[in-house]
Amino acid sequence: MTWNPDDHPAVALPLGGVGTGSIALGSDGGFRQAQLMNVGTHHGDLPGTFMALRVQQLEPILNRSMVLQAARDDEGARGRPATPMFNDDLVPRWQRDLIGAHGGTRTTMKATYPVAEVTHDTGGPIEVRVRAVSPLVPGDPDASGLPAVLVDVELVNTSDVVAWTWLAFAAHNAVGLDPHLNPRGVRAPVTAATSTGSGAPADAPTS
Fold it and tell me: What secondary structure, in 3-state letters, does 58-82 show?
């Protein structure tokens, strides 16, 4: 099945080894919903985790950089989830600001666990296909439990003119952190005025 963020903004496929935590790839191409302790958290984004592309051509003259994530225009993209009690369509503020500053793409997504594939229409000569795979080997729990996500990116020049491309992938190091403890993301500040005696944010989930 194929999804697009205009009609299916809440679609996201969790990726990662079995029992090792996960991060989801959304239909808009954004990485979010990260967790390390196998407890679902849809607010657990990792700030600064994104992919970007720069494209240059001589004829016609082109020099453009963009974030490889759809520039959405819906309630979730404005920070207000459209569905009561669910926030799968929510785009974190830092992602909204990043796309607003550098521009985004149009995306379509095909996904059947353990594989997700997002195709980016950049509005130019380069089409981008991002394929993310979880390490799932039926009958082999050790191989299936590797804490990893395999990401393959294919750049396709759809024009007859040579294009120069630069691809960047930044990932926040989440080792030692658990976004479940902070529903606003792992880098939200914890101050004396907002923290509890345990050192967790005052609005953190409690058992």
Answer: ECCEEEEEEECCECCCCCHHHCCCC
